[in-house]
């Protein structure tokens, strides 16, 4: 089946905003501004409308993929053949899917809203980031973080009740999409009850009941079509130990981070890191907090299988 982006305009000329967005991605924080600029110039850029398929599981391995703008979601088929959301993805690296012998689950990355995605080969990425070789490992850690979260939310082996799983999911959304304000973390997007129900593997009416209970417990505040998550209070309520709590840096403040402009020079001279990255690319033709640890988690956890929604 053809890649969804074949029906869309593909661009290799990055907009200034792409550099700004890449500069805000935490995984790339070790790169200099000049290296990020070179990365932005090398990426192949695609635009996706809401609901379009960005990637299928077979399309991940050859390239590194960045969600530059918008929100994406990972989906798969459950035991009844229904497509469900298993993760909501913020700006940053798009996590890879596990390689399974059967294509029964049909993992995909889809656009939750209008998205802009950049892709490049792993060899080119390693050349540009030659001064920060740990970035490749960080990509793999990002993959593991998303699958660990899925295990917390959906595995019956952990013996977490639905109320705890809803709370954990809200903490995840606060970490990835929250803007810090005086009352907690304001979620930037109006995630629906259906979205949360998919993430925890339960029916929408049951999730609505638990969200209402969290509101009565003053752990969640409804504001218009979105929520304010009282992160500290919610973590204490579900027994998250202090060493595992989401730090204040896990979600951004309302103000935009300042970005240091760079023109591939340092004090009037060529930046040696950019010279190395550029040299590595010569000869080639240019064509998204620590995991939560709630109580009742056993040691030694077997593998998971996406669950169908509980009635």
Number of strands: 15
What is the total number of structural domains?
1
Mean pLDDT: 76
Poorly predicted ranges (pLDDT <50, ≥5 residues)?
Answer: 1-9, 253-268, 283-311
**Number of alpha- plus pi-helical segments:** 9
Query: Architecture, according to CATH?
Result: Sandwich
- How helical, in percent, are the residues? 25-40%
Distance N to C terminus: 34 Å
Specify the structural class. Answer: alpha+beta
User: What would the CATH topology be?
Assistant: Jelly Rolls
Give the topology.
Layout: E1 10-11, H1 16-23, H2 33-42, E2 44-48, E3 53-56, E4 63-69, E5 72-77, E6 83-89, E7 92-93, E8 108-111, E9 115-121, H3 122-128, H4 134-154, H5 162-177, E10 178-181, E11 184-187, H6 193-200, H7 204-216, E12 220-223, E13 226-229, H8 231-237, E14 265-266, E15 269-270, H9 272-281
Antiparallel strand pairs: 1-2, 2-9, 3-8, 4-7, 4-9, 5-6, 5-8, 10-11, 11-13, 12-13, 14-15
């Amino acid at each position: 089946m053809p890649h969804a982006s074949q029906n869309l305009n593909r661009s290799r000329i990055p907009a200034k905003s792409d550099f700004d967005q890449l500069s805000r991605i935490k995984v790339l924080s070790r790169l200099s501004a000049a290296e990020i600029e070179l990365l932005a110039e090398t990426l192949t850029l695609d635009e996706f409308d809401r609901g379009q398929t960005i990637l299928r599981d077979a399309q991940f391995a050859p390239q590194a993929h960045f969600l530059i703008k918008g929100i994406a979601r990972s989906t798969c088929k459950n035991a009844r053949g229904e497509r469900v959301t298993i993760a909501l993805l913020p700006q940053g690296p798009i996590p890879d899917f596990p390689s399974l012998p059967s294509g029964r689950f049909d993992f995909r990355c889809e656009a939750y809203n209008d998205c802009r995605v950049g892709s490049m080969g792993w060899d080119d990425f390693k050349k540009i980031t030659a001064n920060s070789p740990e970035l490749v490992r960080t990509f793999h850690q990002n993959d593991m973080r998303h699958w660990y979260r899925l295990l917390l939310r959906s595995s019956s082996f952990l013996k977490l009740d639905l109320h705890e799983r809803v709370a954990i999911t809200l903490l995840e959304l606060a970490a990835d999409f929250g803007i810090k304000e005086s009352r907690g973390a304001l979620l930037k997007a109006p995630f629906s009850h259906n979205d949360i129900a998919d993430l925890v593997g339960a029916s929408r009416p049951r999730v609505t009941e638990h969200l209402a209970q969290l509101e009565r417990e003053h752990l969640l505040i409804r504001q218009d079509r979105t929520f304010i998550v009282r992160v500290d209070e919610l973590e204490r309520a579900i027994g998250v130990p202090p060493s595992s709590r989401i730090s204040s840096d896990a979600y951004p403040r309302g103000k935009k981070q300042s970005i240091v402009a760079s023109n591939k020079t340092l004090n009037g001279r060529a930046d040696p890191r950019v010279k190395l990255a550029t040299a590595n690319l010569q000869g080639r033709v240019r064509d998204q907090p620590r995991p939560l640890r709630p109580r009742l988690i056993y040691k030694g956890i077997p593998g998971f299988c996406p669950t169908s929604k509980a009635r």
